[in-house]
Amino acid sequence: MLHPVGPLPAAVYWRRRLLVLLVLLVVLGGGGWLGVSLLTGSGDTAAAAGSAASSSPVGTPALDRVVPSLAGVQTPTPPPSTTPPAPQPPAPPAQEAGAPCGDDVVALEVRTPGSAPSGSAPVLELVVTNTAAVPCTRVLDKQLQEMVLLDAAGARLWGSNDCQPETSSDTRTLAPGEQVVFPLTWSGLTSEPTCTAARVPVAPGSYVVRARLDTKTSPDAPLQIT
């Protein structure tokens, strides 16, 4: 191996061996350089890509482009409440102690038996009440009192002052909450203010009795004539 044998001089064979060895070294060296170049090149490429990514401005995320930030959302201001305030109970009417009772502190009520046979003589009552918190005076004269009977259509059929009007002088001091009752017996007959028309028994039906004390009027009280 170290002593070449052949028809040619030994120097020729050594030169051939050196040439083969040189080619082999060149091939090995070139392959190694190519491998190193590939490794270092890919690293530089990744670094360059990273540098480019870090130097480029960061864009808005896709979700943020679709859903706005809560800080930028304008929330509507709720409208003011339109609920009306709760009604306050009416203040009790002012009444000076010992002064005449005003209509606003006098309550009128008519009491009836509820029903009565036609042609009978039912007893009706006028009730006067002082609703003030202090005593006051009220004129309760008979000529200032009146009861009337009305049918379902509101027609007047009888009045207590039509045929037998009464007079009196009756001024009273009413204590707070005091009631005064004035009974009246009705004949059960019709009447009119002049008392000239024929008086007949009121026909069976549904009626109401309404009372008055001077300028104060009572609620209607039902009365059934059977």
Short overview:
The protein has 226 residues and is of the alpha+beta class. Helix content is 23%, strand content 25%.
Shape: rod-shaped
The CATH top-level class label of the largest domain: Mainly Beta
Gyration radius, to the nearest Å? Answer: 61 Å
- The percent range for helix content is 10-25%
Hey, roughly how much beta strand do the residues contain? Answer: 25-35%
In N-to-C order, the SSE pattern is HHEEEEEEEEEEE
Find the structural class using helix and strand composition. alpha+beta
- Judging by the overall fold, what is the CATH architecture of the largest domain? Sandwich
Number of domains: 2
Assigned CATH superfamily of the largest domain:
Intracellular proteinase inhibitor BsuPI
Q: Flag low-confidence runs.
A: none
Q: Kindly, what is the distance between the CA atoms of the first and last residues, rounded to a whole number of angstroms?
A: 159 Å
For the sheet with most strands, the description reads: 6 strands, mixed
Provide mean pLDDT, rounded: 82
CATH topology of the largest domain: Immunoglobulin-like
Count of alpha and pi helical runs:
2
Strand elements, count: 11
Which properties best describe this structure?
226 residues, alpha+beta, Immunoglobulin-like, 2 domains, six-stranded mixed beta sheet, three-stranded antiparallel beta sheet, 11 strands, MucR family transcriptional regulator
SSE topology:
Layout: H1 10-55, H2 62-66, E1 106-111, E2 115-116, E3 123-130, E4 136-139, E5 145-150, E6 156-159, E7 171-174, E8 179-185, E9 205-213, E10 216-217, E11 221-225
